[in-house]
Amino acid sequence: MTLIPSPTTPDGHAAPCAPEDVRRVACVGAGVIGGGWAAHFLARGYDVTAWDPAPDAAVRLRRLIAAAWPALERLGLAEGASQDRLTVTATLEEAVAEAQFVQESAPEKLELKRGLLARLDAAAPAGTVIASSTSGYPMTDMQTEAADPGRLVVGHPFNPPYLIPLVEVVGGERTSPAAVDWASRFYTVAGKSVITMDREVPGFIANRLQEALWREALHMVANGEATVAEIDASITEGPGLRWAVMGPMLTFALAGGEGGMAHMLDHFGPSLKSPWTRLEAPELDRALYEAVVAGCEEAADGRGIADLVAERDRGVIDVLRATGRLPRTAEEAAR
Ligand SMILES: NC(=O)C1=CN([C@@H]2O[C@H](COP(=O)(O)OP(=O)(O)OC[C@H]3O[C@@H](n4cnc5c(N)ncnc54)[C@H](O)[C@@H]3O)[C@@H](O)[C@H]2O)C=CC1
Ligand SMILES: C[N+](C)(C)CC(=O)CC(=O)[O-]
């Protein structure tokens, strides 16, 4: 569907501007994810307005963006991109008053999201698409209080949104298909890699997969079968290296040798019946909680969160370059 600026879309909603014409984005909720989104949009040359009710939000937000900026410079800034194009507003209404796209990244609480999305819908210009960063709530459950639920979509990012390309886009029962289409196109123009889902699935796609792995990991810690360090090493030294290059399906197809996935399934299909997985969530009791937190502190080995963030950012850029998803530096290309 082509969405050029026009008074209404074919389904009767006020039309947003074309995704390519967006200049001003509002980020509402400016913590880890809202701040990461703001950094991404600034680096892509957008004007960004942000609002967050926390008294120290503006200071935290500017600090997060400043810390992300060296990584964003390494990635390559858009022409005119500047941290100075951020405006932190005193009210939600000011933040979205002229927004051509709104990204909501408030805490993961259903009632809060419902009320906030209704407020954003009341305050944002008619037609402006509003996306929620929710990690798992279906939009159908969040859009219940909005006067115009048709423009509300899920745009689920991955931490940090300024580095990890994927966004999962999906609407709710009352979302206009044109809004889903518009959001997918906008994120693409804004440099993201988009999966547009045609139906609501609990956990979307990637979180559903991640959660399965995470639950298994918690079971193993809870049962004393593996330490936090062993779980992390089992991925970073093992399958994680392959997953940065190829997904789990193609990776396993190669396990079948020249017979590909068919041989892999013939060979290993029967082990699906083996008790390799538990998949029900373990009780997140105090003991499990403390074991996981202590294991992570030990793994950090004195590095603070800021050190780990910088290390992760360098590493992800190196993987993106090494796997050809980013241009190599002149030095790498000469090798
Ligand atoms: N942390 C993660 O790895 C990811 C989180 N998400 C989603 O992003 C959203 C935000 O999560 P985080 O950034 O991790 O949380 P966070 O706790 O870091 O940030 C939330 C921010 O929202 C602000 N806030 C509180 N009440 C608000 C309100 N009524 N309106 C607007 N802002 C409000 C808080 O002051 C805080 O700065 C959640 O929906 C979460 O599920 C999505 C992908 C990854
Ligand atoms: C932990 N989490 C469920 C909030 C994670 C996400 O939603 C996506 C990510 O960044 O992995």
UniProtKB/TrEMBL annotation:
Gene Ontology molecular function: any one: carnitine 3-dehydrogenase activity
Highest taxon of the lineage: Bacteria
Main location: cytoplasm
Transmembrane region(s): none
UniProt keyword annotation of NAD present: yes
GO terms, biological process: carnitine metabolic process
Pathway assigned in UniProt: Lipid metabolism; butanoate metabolism; Amine and polyamine metabolism; carnitine metabolism
Entry keyword annotation includes Cytoplasm: yes
Annotated catalysed reactions: carnitine + NAD(+) = 3-dehydrocarnitine + NADH + H(+)
One Pfam entry name: 3HCDH_N
UniProt cross-references to InterPro entries, sorted A to Z: 3-OHacyl-CoA_DH_NAD-bd (IPR006176), 3HC_DH_C (IPR006108), 6-PGluconate_DH-like_C_sf (IPR008927), 6PGD_dom2 (IPR013328), L-carnitine_dehydrogenase (IPR026578), NAD(P)-bd_dom_sf (IPR036291)
Enzyme Commission designation: 1.1.1.108
Coiled-coil positions: none
Keywords on record: Cytoplasm, NAD, Oxidoreductase
Binding site for NAD(+): G29, A30, G31, V32, I33, G34
SUPFAM superfamilies found in the cross-reference section: 6-phosphogluconate dehydrogenase C-terminal domain-like, NAD(P)-binding Rossmann-fold domains
Subunit structure: Homodimer.
Function in brief: Catalyzes the NAD(+)-dependent oxidation of L-carnitine to 3-dehydrocarnitine.
UniProt name for this protein: L-carnitine dehydrogenase
Organism: Streptomyces californicus
